[in-house]
Description:
The complex is a heterodimer.
Chain A: H1 5-15, H2 21-33, H3 35-49, E1 54-55, H4 62-77, E2 81-83, H5 90-107, E3 116-119, E4 125-128, E5 134-137, E6 142-145, E7 155-160, E8 162-166, E9 175-178, E10 182-186, E11 190-196, E12 200-207, E13 209-214, E14 223-226, E15 229-234, E16 240-243, H6 258-265, H7 267-270, E17 271-279, E18 285-293, E19 300-311, E20 316-323, E21 332-338, E22 346-358
Parallel strand pairs in A: 2-3, 7-9
Antiparallel strand pairs in A: 3-6, 4-5, 5-8, 6-7, 8-11, 9-10, 10-13, 11-12, 12-15, 13-14, 15-16, 17-18, 18-21, 19-20, 19-22
Chain B: H1 2-28, H2 31-47, H3 57-76, H4 85-88, E1 91-92, H5 104-114, H6 118-128, H7 134-141, H8 145-187
Helix pairs in contact in B: 1-2, 1-3, 2-3, 3-6, 5-8, 6-8, 7-8
Amino acid sequence: MALxxxxxxxxxxxxxxxASKQERKELEAWxxxxxxxxxxxxxxxxxxxxxxxxxxxxxADVNSHWDELRRRIxxxxxxxxxxxxPHRNIIWKAAAGLxxxxxxxxxxxxxxxxxxxxHSGNAxxxxxxxxxxxxxxxxxxxxxxxxKAFGKTNRHTKLSGEGYxxxxxxxxxxxxxxxxxxxIRVLGTSFNVKEEGNERVNVxxxxxxxxxxxxxxxxxxxxxxxxxxxxIWKADEPLEKSKNTESQYAAWRKKNNPVYEKEVQHPxxxxxxxxxxxxxxxxxxxxxxTLTSSALLADYRNIHLRVxxxxxxxxxxxxxxTISPVLKAGSTLDFERRLLDFFADTKSxxxxxxxxxxxx
Amino acid sequence: xxxTNYEEFETLFRLHHKELINLAYNLLRDKDAxxxxxxxxxxxxxxxxxxxxxxxKIKHYLFKATAHTALNHLxxxxxxxxxxxxxxxxxxxxxxxxxxxxKELEIKVREAIDHLPPxxxxxxxxxxxxxxxxxxxxxxxxxxxxxxxNQMGIALEKLRQELKPFLSLxxxxxxxxxxxxxxxxxxx
Lengths: 360, 188
């Protein structure tokens, strides 16, 4: 009952619509010639009919794929222009064109170096440097560094505009931020640098200590700035230092920041519960676990949890709980709650975050 | 004009991404490989952009480049694995039906297709799923028409061999039915 390769070719050409009129006639005659032929044809047809299902990937993330491609193109280009604003949508189209033009003129002054220039453009952006230092850039600010040298014996960066730095501590690897007119040197700390043209630079320290000096260090020695202090450089004046009274100095990170907007609108996306449960001595379900925040800036409180539990007979009930303590951005909180299911034979239980308030 | 090309290029990418990812994924059944293939295609396009014009032809070019690059990847793939649960969820019919249900046989057929040699598999999929004519397949994969014809025959033969156990039972009854009908014909 075996078919020859030629016969398989003719059948597949017929089934796929690639057979000529003559070939179709010949095949149909062959089919009628013997029952065995018809049987074989039908088997082949059955296979053909059942092989139509395509594999698809409907939730392929075009945004992250585009980011990867863009990075590869930038690397190839050599100047490594990195645009940090969020994924393109209609809103950014016009702005993007303008900023691209502006940046391009700016870029023409850079030689083909291996320097990386990060521009924030029309939104607040956050990046991690190769040493895991976290940097927020305000609108139209930029940060640059040499990826080849960064982290080897020092971590040297140049800032234009305003940035907030969470520097990862690293022994014998000082982190420096140079603006046009000042130099800042740290070992591991959080601080805000605000440059106003050629007139003024403010450095406010949140945690840790920095050394602050004019770019031309022959003019004046550096001063040490500690937590909750602010140091100011002004053109042609000595450096000043005082206690910081401006508590909102880093609040700019929450404005014009689409990522922060999302953290505010959809807290449930950023809070992940992990839990376990057991019945205690009086047959109450005790739920205990943690809530972890993956938010970068938003601090949450009064987190509303919904617990859905099903009894042995299949019926489901739910209960709402509020976890009041503050869950700071990126941290974890413990919680424990008890259900009022003394008389129920609870068989399974699920916890989900419904909403939360954002600490302003 | 460097910057206009960049924007146009991104628009092009976003416009064709879904179709090309699905084509690559259908051929390779590997999400990472599919992503790499599409990236390679567009990266090459970017590097050669001075030689190409963005027009209706670009869609054609992208399709062929993706199929061709996927075939190269297929040749490097040595794994033969069965479909896992997540893959089963995304089997859809080539028409616009939002098809989700599937039969055992269809899964078995799909597995058998994935067991075909690389060139053979690519040709079969382009014919059966993308509806390309033999000559179009030959152009896309840079093969001769004769090769495509041969390989289609080989595909059917190999599929039939692998699927025999799943077809025979069903045909026992069909065979009886046909025999019965033929007998009836002779007696009437």
